[in-house]
Specification:
The protein is an all-alpha fold and 188 residues long. It has helices at 3-64, 69-83, 88-110, 113-117, 119-154, 158-164, 178-181.
Length: 188
Amino acid sequence: MSVGLIVLIVVIAIVVILLLWVMGTYNSLVRGKNGIEEAFSTMDVYLKKRFDLIPNLVETVKGYAAHEKETLEKTIAMRNAAGNARDFNERIQSESALSGAVRNLFAIAENYPDLKANQNFLELQGQLRGCEEDIANARKYYNAVVRRFNDRVMMFPSSIIAGMFHFEKQPMFEVANEAERENVKVSF
């Protein structure tokens, strides 16, 4: 074998290895992006369930807490904003605000002993609490999938492939503002 043939074989081997690495990295980024979409879709099922439960809960509370009209209207407005979100980031922000409104709704209910004893309210409250737990778990899963994907997008050498094929860092689903991190205050 001549030196030229050996060099050609080595160059071809390096090119093949490089192509295999590019394909593998690209495929793992696609798998990660699909995982993010799946995780969000799972969470979206729970968000939709909560979306459907809120009007029933608000109507039940309305009968007992007529003077809490502003909070009830704000909860419905936030629910509608979440349903009308145009893009992913807007959806994350509106769903986060809606979570705070639901906590406020439960705080209002604490002021009304008759309401707390109402079977319809208790059933709706239980369903909504379960739904909120499911949403929290789905958020944890979603954020874990996003973190893994973002690591691949940002870490060398996979960041080269991510940049070439326009894979971008994805947003986490987190609390939108500091006010929502605080406990709801209930006063009698």
